[in-house]
Amino acid sequence: MIVQNYTNHKRLHPLFHFVFTLLTVGLVVLSITQLVQALRDNEQVMPAILFVLLALIVVVILLIIRSYPLKAQDRAIRAEENLRHYVLTGKLLDKKLTTAQITALRFASDEEFPGLCQKAAAERMTPDAIKKAVRSWRGDHERI
Fold this sequence. Notes:
Largest sheet: none
Keywords: Membrane, Transmembrane, Transmembrane helix
InterPro entries: DUF6526
Structural class: mainly alpha
Strand content: under 5%
Helix content: 55-70%
Low-confidence stretches: none
Number of strands: 0
Transmembrane segments: 12-33, 45-65
Pfam family, one: DUF6526
Number of domains: 1
Radius of gyration: 22 Å
Distance between the termini: 16 Å
Shape: elongated
Order of helices and strands: HHHHH
Protein name: DUF6526 family protein
Mean pLDDT: 92
């Protein structure tokens, strides 16, 4: 397994990020083109409107199938990192930490995790700044 670090930790799923997304964009463009052409040529617009509506439904599905699993993973990461912080320090995570900050903190090793949690909460660090501050990277190979 490849050692994970800041430069290679982002993951793409080719079927979703490239194929499905490009096909959806193509469907939206073609459906709008078809509607404009039907309006311009004084043809029946109902099939073209249905085509646009179907394309919009596919866009909504695309957004939902990406956001729901990420929200579930974020909840799991928040719970895991809260438990890890408790085990290491005897205290729960600072309530000021956002979910985005906590998901970035998961890459910190146990040695630097508590200190980086304090710094992130005190300085309101961005998730990207947190990831860049990690010195001993702890890979997360489970996230999609």
